[in-house]
Amino acid sequence: MMRLVAGLTAVCLLVANLGAAEARSYRSDAFDGSWRLIFKTRSGSCDPSYDFNVNVSNGNIFHPNLVRFRGRVSRSGAVRASVTVQDKHAAGTGRLDPTSGSGTWSGYSGTAKCTGTWSATKD
User: Cα(65)–Cα(75) distance, rounded to whole angstroms?
Assistant: First the structure.
């Protein structure tokens, strides 16, 4: 359960970057589909890595088994996401292009804080 929460937190963080990367304009459905996410913990006491899939549809990012998961991808590829499961929470930001992406995440499990990076590839 702890691993799932940490993974979800990482996903949320993945979807959360409205950074200053160069602005591109993709078709609104360019990101639709299934994405494989890999999260690496860089600091804190979370599991070293997490690997799972999310879906994107019309700019909305979702996971079928997580109720408190919110994520959004803009037409430029900027991503913002967050997830909460029991006493665990994570949020992230980053950027996608139509086939891959990357970013950073941070979160907590109880009082323990963690940070890391994520990468994504479209299935």
Answer: 26
Q: Model-level pTM?
A: 0.77
pLDDT in tens, 41-100: 999 988 888 888 999 999 999 988 876 888 999 999 999 999 888 888 889 999 999 999
Total tally of structural domains belonging to the chain = 1
Identify the bridge partners of residue 59 per DSSP, sorted by sequence position: none
Q: What is the pLDDT of residue 67?
A: 67
Q: 12 with 90: CB under 8 angstroms?
A: yes
Which of 112, 118, 3 lies closest to 61, judged by CA?
118
Name the burial class of residue 10, with classes exposed (0-12), middle (13-18) and buried (19+) by CB atoms within 10 angstroms of its CB.
Answer: buried
Domain of 50: which CATH number? 2.40.128.120
> Which residue bears the tokens 């430029």?
76
Question: Residues near 22 by Cβ (< 8 Å), separated by ≥ 6?
Answer: none
Give the domain extent around 80.
2-122
Q: Cα–Cα distance between 87 and 95 in angstroms, integer?
A: 27
Q: What is the pLDDT of residue 19?
A: 37
